[in-house]
């Protein structure tokens, strides 16, 4: 299994722990990845809301570059995944957007033929690798660890088809294969507040609080995420969002960090030290070794 | 243009009369009718050409008849509206003047010309072209005869819901024999499950069961439950229908419905979800579908009966039945063949599967119900004896009713299901009456047209039921606020107040829409009728032939044609019965002569045409090695004519010469 890997800016910055842990998991499961050469910004948030067409052109360049390699491209960041998928769909559906993107690409000698598949790591791990193969490689089952699986709003809606849009289950099954228990978490696909914390802090903090309080109510030990922005919001603003409610330090990890632990990697290899709410006390409480 | 005599009229030299209709200003406003008539008068073989204000009026028809006599006309062209409207009128005119009615050709200069064009000069030119084509064509028309076939007076009614019941009773009460075929073990359909009916709040069972009993005991109704139509052959007036009767494992003639066998069944506790109560209660493997079932006979479910599963049951039911010996484990499926003259389809609808809208939590949260489940829940004969007790044994203090679930939704069904607003109001009233709960209705638009319907809505407003205008986004079970703890939360944008509301409730009712039956498409093919793209059976004309179909002698009634409430379904059933009676009382039907026929000497017997015929009208004559067309079955679609490699199939009224002459007439430069 060989794929292209499109990291996007987050996985090289605030989401470094995601890259470190995900690549480790891929290694352990024989998923070979090759970083897309000369990639650029995916065109997310700011571009998309300020200058939509430029955003499609930026995403189009990444798609055109990937297409030349004739491999599926994995986009782990939820925003990258959404923008790349959306661009594909819009180029397919709207001839005028297709025309503008084609012209922009032609100016730099590229062409996009709609022949590349954009994949999410959950999709690859769940469908290509498979739950059984994951379970077979588990060295240290996350026995007794209760995980609230949080997918966020971007990866299954509205374009993805690899999982149910309202009640996705791929991360649930993968973490169960690693020995963890999945708690009932009805807010699976609710908004994490996105960048509202910066623009409308009250709204952003409310949205963050709902997610944390609900996980707490369901007695989750950790929250598992698939998106750098979700992880950031829930981790960094945890204290601020919940001080009006009740204190609940709950570690917010990338699903790949949890899988990495089960597959035998150490905390440094998985970037656990980069998360603000520490996982150590939880693991100690559950008598789970991780050194 | 060649002389008309040269191209061989078979009825002597053609003498054609052309009549241009003004249709008030409908045609005359856009077409220069005067000059059109003058032009027609100059065409070869045209003996007389006139324009007239309304040719279809009595004086207009008299004019044609007078001309036929005075000018010895032997063909007529009428340039007016669509032949769908007035071709029968003018054919009768010709007939009354002693001419064969098929020596008429109509030109549609209204729908095809004046209504679709604005430039008078261009429109007149187009009308002239069309009239010229018709004049050339009509010269070649042959004398054709309509065939008469007798009509079998028996009627098949498919579906035993309220529409099928009403149609069957109407026909039987007028002395016609009816075969009523129902798929389930009892008739009654959806209506039998309802508690009260809107807007009068009369009890559904009280008004339905007398009709059901009447069906069961009517000497002229043959009722076959647990049965389905397997095959339909024949044509209007003479259908031959094969019906598959599934085993009930009870000899119907011997069972008296005492239910002692049910009592005696080795299952002391009922374990199987009861279909009639939508799984809200349990039944045994041997059971009566519901107390007022017709026929009042028990039925055995082989899926759950121990005797069928293992063959080792004590058969206490047989013991209880005693000397009547009504239980027969060896009953087999059987086929019945009946001959009928007409068929009424009243196959009904199914409700939208609420689990498809996952965001409303049906199937996930036990306190989310469909409206049909609530009908059973509040029914005195239902699983809780009419008390609103939820699956967890609690009674709701607040109830949210969500409208348009699976209706008016581009992700599921786009149509309005028509009955949901009214039944939601009814349920709101009944729930409030039984429980005193606060009831919230979430609606997009309130649609309450109908006698007494809007007044019922007014009454609900007075009763203090809450109405929130806005499509519900989701039903969830997590609390954003302590007051929501342990409740289901309905989140919707209140579009009148302009903000998003979260309303915590104890019970959610999903007002599910109506959908075509899952097998509507197979049924449609069986009876050779059409469906709309959604799957509703298609009527011949949405306004003027609402219960007829494109297959003569097959009528539709009730919700199989589209969502409708009980009054509408009953009205349609009556209309369908009347149409069937009209056919029967006429005694015979005339078949259009536009049938295909084989030139036997040219037919090579290649059989290309046989599988192409949609009406199974073509057979193969083994002695002559020829294809043979059954004129009575042929609908004149022309498929075989076009497909025949040797050109040996022709079609009356559409023979090559006639069609080519028309085309040439159209294309000739005037």
Summarize the structure.
The complex is a heterodimer of chains A (291) and B (670). Chain A has helices spanning 16-28, 45-50, 52-68, 78-93, 95-107, 121-129, 131-137, 170-177, 196-199, 201-217, 228-236, 238-242, 255-262, 280-285, and strands at 2-5, 32-35, 73-74, 118-119, 146-149, 181-182, 222-225, 252-254.
Secondary-structure class of chain A: alpha/beta
Largest sheet of chain A: 4 strands, parallel
Supply the CATH architecture of the largest domain in chain A: 3-Layer(aba) Sandwich
Name the strands of the widest sheet of chain B in spatial order. Answer: 10-7-6-18-29
Q: For the largest beta sheet of chain A, what order do the strands appear in spatially?
A: 2-1-3-4
Fraction in beta strands of chain A = 5-15%
Percent helix among the residues of chain A? 40-55%
Regions with little confidence, pLDDT below 50 for 5+ residues of chain B: 1-10
Descriptors:
heterodimer, A: 291 residues, alpha/beta, Glutathione S-transferase Yfyf (Class Pi), Chain A, domain 2, Rossmann fold, 2 domains, four-stranded parallel β-sheet, 47% helix, globular, B: 670 residues, FAD/NAD(P)-binding domain, five-stranded parallel β-sheet, 17 helices, 34 strands, disordered N terminus
Mind sketching the topology for me?
The complex is a heterodimer of chains A (291) and B (670).
Chain A: E1 2-5, H1 16-28, E2 32-35, H2 45-50, H3 52-68, E3 73-74, H4 78-93, H5 95-107, E4 118-119, H6 121-129, H7 131-137, E5 146-149, H8 170-177, E6 181-182, H9 196-199, H10 201-217, E7 222-225, H11 228-236, H12 238-242, E8 252-254, H13 255-262, H14 280-285
Parallel strand pairs in A: 1-2, 1-3, 3-4, 5-6, 5-7, 7-8
Chain B: E1 16-21, H1 33-41, E2 46-52, H2 58-70, E3 75-80, H3 83-96, E4 104-108, H4 110-114, H5 120-138, E5 147-150, E6 155-158, H6 162-173, E7 178-181, E8 196-197, E9 202-203, H7 204-217, E10 221-224, E11 227-235, E12 238-245, H8 260-264, E13 272-273, E14 282-283, E15 286-287, E16 299-300, H9 306-309, H10 316-321, E17 334-340, E18 342-345, E19 349-351, E20 368-370, H11 371-377, E21 398-405, H12 420-435, E22 438-443, H13 453-462, E23 466-469, E24 472-476, E25 488-494, E26 499-505, E27 507-512, E28 514-516, H14 520-526, E29 554-556, H15 566-586, E30 588-591, E31 596-598, E32 618-621, E33 626-629, H16 639-643, E34 649-651, H17 656-667
Helix pairs in contact in B: 1-5, 2-3, 5-17, 6-7, 6-15, 12-13
